[in-house]
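User: Show me sequence and structure for the first protein, then do the same for the second.

Assistant: Starting with the first protein.
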Amino acid sequence: MAGLSIWHVVIFAIVVILLFGTSKLKNLGKDVGGVVKDFKKSIREDEQQTVALQEPRTIEHQNVSADTNSTVKH
């Protein structure tokens, strides 16, 4: 039997809970969830920027961009 049985998983879970406690495991779960959420958000933003860069720009859009850049004080 090369695989893990349900009893192996249960014993492993009990040992982990005894070592770390439920509060630390809960905080770890929240932290990992937050990291995954931020990662997905950054991927979506990156895809939106890529799509925006691939769109053709018109002369009017370039003139508006030049006007807004010239009004910025350095």
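Switching to the second protein now.
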Amino acid sequence: MSNIDNKKKIQKVWCDGCYDLVHFGHANQIRQAKSMGDYLIVGVHSDEEVRKHKGPPVFNEEERYKMVRAIKWVDEVVPDAPYITALETLDKYGCSFCVHGDDITCTADGQDTYHIVKAAGRYKECKRTEGVSTTNLVGRMLLLTKTHFDHGIPINSMNPQDLEKISSDSSGKSPYTGVSHFLPSSQKIVQFSDGKDPMPGDRIVYAAGAFDLFHVGLLDFLEKVKELGDYVIVGLHTDSEVNRYKGSNYPIMNLHERVLSVLACRYVNQVIIGAPYKVTEELITQFKVDVVVHGSTLIMNDADGSDPYAYPKQIGIFQTVDSGNPLTTSDIVQRIIAHKLEYELRNQNKEKKELAVLEKIQKQKEMLNGNEVI
């Protein structure tokens, strides 16, 4: 028998989705799917399919393909994946089974998109990440059009009554799209982190910022940053600090959400949680930083009016990195605001479909329970 025959067969796993406004919830689903096999293939739906079944996507398909490729647990991306997962798709790519979260995904007419693979026993479920969804994030951005929120109040300090107003649909609340606070744990951070320290001689690059609504502009920036060294450390500013220099209702995502979103990126090795706005001698010494970088956007002064990058500039290790992509978090928010009514309708329709499916499941359970009594 040859060495090839002795080798364990590679277990290929499939998962698919829209992956719009890619966030740590998507990344966590992908991480869990990868843990069930050896090689993960992710199918991403086209703009046409997303519009047909969910409504207008925030990111176009090329942006979404690129974002998913950058998640560190993804081995391969299949563009224009069918919205209903078919056995033929799994067979074509040599995948044993499909993995999806324990939330509800429906077609435009309310059909379960995974009914075929479920019936064939080629479906596995992973735990959905509570407290975040694309629908939820869109709702947070829609809040920016409401003047009574526009007073520099960070999202995470709003009261529950204000947060409930994110959804325009008052007929009910879906447990999958309703608003809840993300509660981080040390275990989750460990799961997202590769846990590797820099090797002796590694060139260490440091980049700091808000990294809010982790998007393709930030991704292109980090890809360029990675080219400057061997080990990339990202410093994430606190919510109050981000709100100080960005104003309005920024950040859209709180610090803990931003930590996981950045850690999921294959170009990032380590994150400093709540990094100081001023890049000090102590920070550079502690983390043995060789290069400090900032994007081509304007550098806002520190609270005392000083340049936060004065020290790295003084010692000659500061560089400006142009990502070549002008997209900013503000641009993403403007996309939402410009199509406010469309996205409000998208959120309402998604929630109504999910509530209808939940009601159907509940009735089926009641019927089964009734039969057991008889």
